[in-house]
Each structure stands twice: as C-alpha cells, then as structure tokens.
C-alpha cells in the first residue's frame, strides 16, 4: 500500500515544483525580455533618427550611449515602482485574509529593477557595437539595421521559448515592430529636419 502511495506523492511534488519554478521565473522574465527589447529598439531608433540628419559616427555613438544610460535608469526606476505597487497590493490583501504563507511568492521589486536595467543595457549595447566600427555612413546604417534585425530575431525567439509562446509568430511580431519603430524614427526625423 505504501509503495502505491509514494509515487503519487512524488509526482505531485514534481508538479508543484515545476509550477513554482515557472511562477518565480515569470517575475523576472517579463522585466528581462521587456528590458532587452526596449534597450535594443529605443537605442537603435535613436541612432537611426540621428543618423537621418547627421552622418558622423561620433554623434550617432553619443546618442546611443545617452540612450543606453538614460533608458536603463528609466527602466529600472519604472519597473521598481510598478512591481513595488503590485507587491504592496498583494501584501495588503494577504494581511486582510490573514494568510501570510505565500509572502515569499510575492514579486521582488529589486530583482525586477535590476533585471530591467541590465537587460536594457545589454539590448542597447547591440546597436552601439554594430555601428561603432563602421566609418562609411550608408554602411553604418546598413550594419545597424542588420545587427538589430538579428538581435530582434534572437530576443523574440528567446522570449517566446522561455514564455512557452509560439516561437515563429512571436518572433515575427517582434521583428516587424522593430522595423516599423526604426523606419518611423528615421523618416520622421528626416522630415522634421527638412521642414526646419
């Protein structure tokens, strides 16, 4: 009888452990994927926008660095505030229900802020590295688009895989969104420069 019961308990334990691991991973996964995509796209778009009106590599690189630092700080602060608000709401609900057993499962605002800042900086570093060593203006823009395209495919695939989402559909959505963001920034900046 005991032998028949034991496998059932083990199976349940494994199911609970897998569920717990996925829930914990979900806390930082959203912040990490968002941070990387935002870093990649916002920095690349800034560089493309400046590249629409300035041909020198120094101006483009300074724009990218400013985008990296400012964006990483902004993402970290925004994520910290957002997750801390969620933490406060869930903790207050637990106190009302007098059920503090699940306190360790609450989202951690410090982890979320750190994950956002680091992944934003990693994402932002991709276009910076892609354009840093190309002196020709047109080749630099081409290299920037090519490197960002590869990174969008990589981040889209990774995010879909970790989040258990359809890989091709999710990656395609990220890729198209990225191309639109860069094209709009380039086009609008060029237009405003010509009008002015």
Observed structural traits:
single chain, 196 residues, mainly alpha, 5 helices, elongated, disordered N terminus
Would you mind describing this structure in some detail?
The chain is built from five helices and no strands. By secondary structure, it is mainly α. It has one domain. α1 (2-51) packs parallel to α5 (167-195) and α2 (57-96) runs antiparallel to α3. It is found in: Vacuole membrane. Belongs to the CCC1 family. This is Vacuolar iron transporter. It is a multi-pass membrane protein.
Mass-distribution shape: elongated
Number of strands: 0
Q: How confident overall, as mean pLDDT?
A: 83
Radius of gyration computed on alpha carbons: 22 Å
Structural category is: mainly alpha
| Number of structural domains | 1
The rounded distance between the terminal residues' Cα atoms is: 85 Å
Instruction: State the helix count.
Output: 5
Order of helices and strands: HHHHH
Secondary-structure blueprint of this entry?
Blueprint (H helix, E strand, L loop, with lengths): L1 H50 L5 H40 L12 H24 L4 H26 L4 H29 L1
Helix pairs in contact: 1-2, 1-3, 1-4, 1-5, 2-3, 3-4, 4-5
